[in-house]
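Escalation from tier 1.

The customer reports that the assembly of two entities below gives different structure tokens on two consecutive runs. Tier 1 could not reproduce it. I'm attaching the input and our single run for tier 2 to review.
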Amino acid sequence: MVTASTLLGVAMDGLAFGVFLALLGVGITLVFGLGEVLNLAIGTFAVLAVLVATLVVNSGMGLVVAGAVALVVVALFGLVVDRTILSLVYRSDGEERILLGIFTTLGLTVFLDGVLINYFPSRYTLPLDVGTVSVGGATLTGSSLIIVAIGTVVLAVLFGFLRGTFLGKATRTVFQDERGARLVGVNPRRIRTLIFVLSAAVAGLGGLVFAAGSAVAVSNGFEFTTFALIISIVGGVRSLVGAISAGVFLGLVNQFANFFVGSYVATIILFATAIVVLLARPEAIS
Amino acid sequence: MSSRPSLGTEVRNVAIVAVVFALAPLAVLGSSYYESVLAHLLLIALFAVALNIVFGHTDQLFLFMGGLAGFGAYTTAILADALAISAWVTLPVAALACGLIGLLVSYVSAKRNFTVVLISILTLNLQLVFSEIFVGARGITGGSTGFPYEYFGLEVVADAVGIETKLVLYYLVLLLLVATLGFYLRLVHSKYGIAFDAIREDEVAAESIGIDVVRYKTIAGFVAAFLIGLVGAFFARESGYILPGGFTFIAVDVIVLIVLVVGGLRTTMGPIVGATIIVGIEEFLSSAQSLQTWRSAIFGALLIVLFLYFRQGVVRSARDVLSDLGLTDEPEGGGTDVESR
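Tier 1 run:
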């Protein structure tokens, strides 16, 4: 018989995994909602952050510095991708732009994986070394607690930015009506750049959060991307709240399925959920 | 974009391809390595023909080719072993099962008016489910250690004719390719081809003149998935060993997409030209030790550049160049029974 305290521990880990999923989901949702580009390279951005952070840690810096440097590097990389590849993609529109977005970001993933694997052949982790915490008889993983705290703060800040600031409002204007935004003097291209850079950093944070608990290899990049896709399908590809709730929900589902029936079935449950949602309400994503 | 050449020209081209590839093993002087490369080339071309039918002609982006091919290969082998019968009997069953999966996906997508993005995401998810099952269902698939794949009794033929088993497989695949191209030509030069073009141009308009959009898309989905499942079994037979890693998204779908776009969407020769170029590049990369580890990076870059700048493909570009130079034997504007955009 499984005790309640064990279940609480599993739930906490599930919540931490959920934060990771939510961050990736938010990353893909922001960009698709704004510019119809489905960023299939998002998982690789997450991996890139882990690799950069590992390099910084190895050079003797602390974990916090490493995380900050990693996020800045990934954001800059996002800026380069936006200015080069995406500029070309945004030239076309409608269905063609969506297809081009898929293919070029897919190409980017394959390209980056191919480059990175030459320099980072093994698996990397960024352990937080905080041990476990005992709460009411339940043993909780310390890193999970920290991850959930970081995730909550970051997502709250993101929401504050989109709701409260002028830039955030401009962003939501473009979300809703691109022409209307243009008419009131908002430059959609600029906003897209800003949001793409932001989404790259958010995905990077997702990667760092994941690496706190498990090892990350270059080949995980595409797997992360598929997680992000699943979240955006289940949550609705234009809805941030949807992405966050889907992330947390599936994180919990996955962790419990992992605990009770094993990881292979858990992963299939994840994909099956996405397929069912896709078939049940395709309008959420188109 | 230029129009499709006449049926006569296309049949002649296919015949040339058949002769060239029938003689190709002579050119490699019995090197069993290069015979493998040639067989691999033809198998990739076959996958690309299937993708051409479903994606090129009806805009349904199937991103679970690896999964379907694997499903075909595993099902053929597992059924043959379980029932202790020849893989020749189980192959059509497996291919049919793949076809039905494709049919179902296309039917549901067409019924629910899925956009190309939705279909691609749906099939990508299915691809990952397939991959998980190939690795995870250890009891049936052997998991990530796989099992030897030596079905179809090719050794018997090899002994009887007095040639290598590899060559028997090669000619078998060549036969399949020529037959598939023949079928493809019949398809696109028939009312199906016209309906496909109409649907691709404007689905609503096609519907309004009485074209059953759901039916045609479903047929395309079935045909492509059936072919992919069929080819999948030979794909595994060619390596002699089946592993889940051989049927991943990156290993199959990405390569086949590049092949089709390099060669040219909606052209008959595109899949073969594309496969020749891509397998050529692969061989060049693996010949140099220093380049081998960069294979994936180079293909990724290729995918980006191709889609941004070269979506019309080699076949159409070559045709344009030839007609600019006045070197083509196609009468201007004539002999085209199917206009493509």
